[in-house]
Amino acid sequence: PLCQFHGGARRYECKKHALERARVYRARQRGQCPGCSSKVVLQRIWHALYDDTKRAVFRQGHKKVGMTQADVLKIFAERGVKPDLQWRVVPREPGVACGLDNAAIVSRDIRRELVAALEKEGRERYRELLFCQT
After folding, report:
1. pTM over 0.70, yes/no
2. Packing angle of the helix pair 37-54, 69-79 (nearest 10 deg)
């Protein structure tokens, strides 16, 4: 007798359908909904740049990123690269705020090498590695 249950938000739901709804919700939280996947990728790329700046990996002396997500999209469009989670945006000059004129696109693995070289060997080695990669 389903007619005995009211039609509000607390409608009875069997375990199978509750799990299905939870699966769809989790997929959307992970950024897997089809309509917004490019926006999620762009946000993650920008947030990685923000984290680097915030943690002073590039020792910029401030906690603000000089780029917006629209600027990151412009950089990818100028270089003819499709934004993907394998790419990261890093500054060409680590001591200067990352902006449109001071940004480079590298893979995640190369970014790790660049950060390690910057911390261990200094800015000159960072510039050499970045020049070889771009």
Report:
1. no
2. 110
